Amino acid sequence: MSTVRIGRQRSPLADGDAPARDGEPWSADPYADALRSGRGPLFLRRSDGWLLPLDVERWCADADAADLEVLRRCEGEVLDVGCGPGRLVAALGARGRRVLGIDVSEAAVERTGELGGPALRRSVFEPLPGEGRWGTALLIDGNVGIGGDPRTLLTRMSQLLCTGGLLIAETVPGLDLDERVLVHVTDARGATGSPFPWARLGTPALLRLARRAGWRAVDQWAVGGRSFVALRSRSTNSTAEPPNSAAVSSSQRVRKPSGGRPVAEA
């Protein structure tokens, strides 16, 4: 895949950052333990007891065919929101694409760093490097559900992207689903994290919300039983950070390697 030239644009990766909040639900022990081991089983448990399996093994593996199709469509510099253990960040970096992953989980950020990918422990709703200048933002592995309010999340994504920037989101395949739920992370032993709001959207529901929020649908596709939507914001972004932001501190630069999440239908 060819690398998009940035020209005179200032890199979003050159900005400063702020401390992350503690106590995020995705930092709970069951999730962190699963990422560190690379294995499940792991679930989102709904308040009615329904378990939604989380595909930890796939998240911790190399990018698969569906992931590679997403990466092929990326433009400019890429922000992976909820990057998890970093397979997409690492794959984009290996292709010469400038990329940053963000995740509220310390274990996710650590694992991304071990793959040689840059990542920050940060919520998408906190101040982020390069606001208003990212070429592409990703909401993969069910991350369109972050915060439990997709319209608010879509508004936030439009603030992060440059004018005409691309948002690629993964949706629940085969369903016109618009579900807002309270969930917590749990494992097979019954260990749980704190409850938090989440959302699950099929493609038709996401497209309806996106139109109302000022996005234009440019493509939709399915690969390997997974479905995706590509959107562009219609409005000019006026939230770009000033050019004198501080550089990322050395303590937040990721380590290089020493050697070489969707919610599934239950």
TrEMBL record:
Pfam families: Methyltransf_23. InterPro entries: SAM-dependent_MTases_sf. Residues 1-29, 233-266 are annotated as: Disordered. One of its GO terms (biological process) is methylation. Residues 233-252 have a biased composition (Polar residues). GO terms for molecular function: methyltransferase activity. Keywords: Methyltransferase, Transferase. This is Methyltransferase domain-containing protein.
